[in-house]
Design goal:
The protein is α+β, with helices and mostly antiparallel strands. It contains eight helices and 46 strands. Its main location: membrane.
Amino acid sequence: MRTAGRRRGRRQRALLCAVLLAAWEAAWGPLRYSVPEEMPKGSFVGDVAKDLGLQLPALKDRDAHVFDTGRTRYFFLDLQNGHLSMMEQVDREEICAAVAKCVLNFEILVKRPMNIYKGEVEILDINDNPPSFPERRSVLEISENTAPGARFPLERAHDPDIGVNSLQNYECSESSYFTLDVKTGDDGVKYPELLLVKSLDREQKAAHNLILTATDNGSPVKSGSTTIEIIVLDGNDNAPEFTQSVYKVTVREDVAVGSRVLQVTATDRDEGPNAEVKYSFFKIPEKFDKAFKMDSESGEIVITENLNFEEHEFYELVVQARDAGGLSSHSKVLIKVTDVNNYVPEIVIMSVFTPVPEDTPLGTVIAIFSVQDRDSGANGDVQCSISDSHPFRLEKSFDNYYRVVTAELLDRELVSEYNVTVRAADCGSPALQSSAVLALRVLDVNDNAPVFLEEHYSARVAENNAAGALVLTVRATDADWGQNARVRYRLAEGRVRGAPLSSYVSVQAETGALYALRSLDYEQLRELQLWVRAEDGGAPALSSNVSVRLQIVDENDNAPQVLLVVLVRDHGRPALSATATLSVVLAESVAELLAELGSAADEAALPAEAAAGLTRWLVLAVAAVSCLFVAFLLLLLALRLRRWHRRQLLPPDSGALRGVPVSHFVGIDGVRAFLQSYSHDVSLTADSRKSQLRFSAASSCDTLPARPPDEASGDLVPSEDQVT
């Protein structure tokens, strides 16, 4: 009943903790901060302690820190003030490239109880990069026969900043032959093109120099420029023409290296060498240069390295067709990469709470982990689960963060270890999955008292046992583990015949063996009742008791003894009396008599000196009684002989002895009557201390009368009824 009550209390406390935790998490969302790029190391980002509602001592006690995911760490938590600070200077363009919104995620991990809080820091762009061209000077060759209206793509500038700080416009120096036309592509990027507005004449002007300037809209405005040298070529009337102004193709990211992506085609209406067309990439970005290769003769574009959708999902290339006369035309190739489910979900175990105390409340966080899948779309959607056969459940914290919490109360005595398998599977086709094992050990709590193997113990012990003899062994087991299961035994306090129980028996603390500390005597102690307590080594310790009954078995260690107490009382007023103790010992000889008396004295439960004195007095008393008895017999015999002799000398009616009282003479018959009166009503028992010899009232003799009776008798021998 007591254990069940404790368990109900634990459930109620666990439910309360779970409700409070859920309410807290509902009130607090992810932490969000923003900071400009290029801030120096140690710069303030946000007040984490304040935003989480935690005091500074709590941050230290709970070991709060920014969790290390194995990637570059940009922030740290200062436990002195609770601030999130920059660990190093951050360049937004370096870590986020052209991403419109640069957000760095971080996780704050706390313990006791364990929890994780997600946060994000937006790195704000500053105008720290001017637009720049790949080359400070470029050359463009145009035939003098090129008709006005022809367009010539120019190499575009690059500004790693974003928003108003990025490239906003192009400007070109004034020219009567050319004008600048800026177009915006599907990706929002501005592309400069040179438009021929007037026919060229190589003989009038063989070269034209223009300055192309790119500007942003930051504060302050930054710009970059390049020089374009236009060389006017002689002859060749027609430039090559592509069959399409834009080529579009879609490829899977797992396409094999060496595969053909597409083939572009351009025709030239000229004849001879002026109609021979060569294909090439026009100002291909360096990062794309290793991914594709173009056959100059056929116009085929092939893949030269593995594509990665997660790195580049879209490629925009400019291809050029150039004839032998130097005329060229350009076209765009748009390559879209489709995602393939080629990444297995990755499970990152962030923290594991082990060993877990078995009295852990419900809803306690046991482990926190995250799942990452580098694929996109359905291929990157991950579903997590854990095995159902364990007393844990899986909860999703936020995004791809999960935590394992206790769903049932733990009991180490039932299950001491758990291997919880976490599975993560994406939604691709076919689905890819991974797993991780959480090895959890349950920590023992002292919640089980020792239990004796028997409800009660009993044993029979023969008296006169040796001191220190083993009586019996009690044994108790404890379902707990370690120190909590270590059982020690001890006697409950008690007294026996006025003496402490511990002076009679003792119990060995480790084994439960019960020993008799003294020789037991059945005639003094028939039975011994005691309690033994078993106590474990927990804190606080739990214990249980068991009753032990020891029955003392009698042995024939006492010879029978006869004790007579004789009472002599006179008839005076007041009456006076005296008593004497008479011990009757039957023996074949005097030597045996003395030996019996000595053994009887040794076995008497008296002190040694008193026993020795009693023995001496008994010997003297027996000798005195024997002498008196012999003297009495001799006296009776002498009187008998004297009477017989007088009868022979005096006549029968002689009155010489008429004045002597009859009661002064005792005959042989009187002696016989005396012996008979004291030789019955003897009762003996096996217990010599309880054996008795009693005289009946009819057999006891009063003291002899001082005066003879009123009526005189002539017979010297008294009759039977005259002897009292």
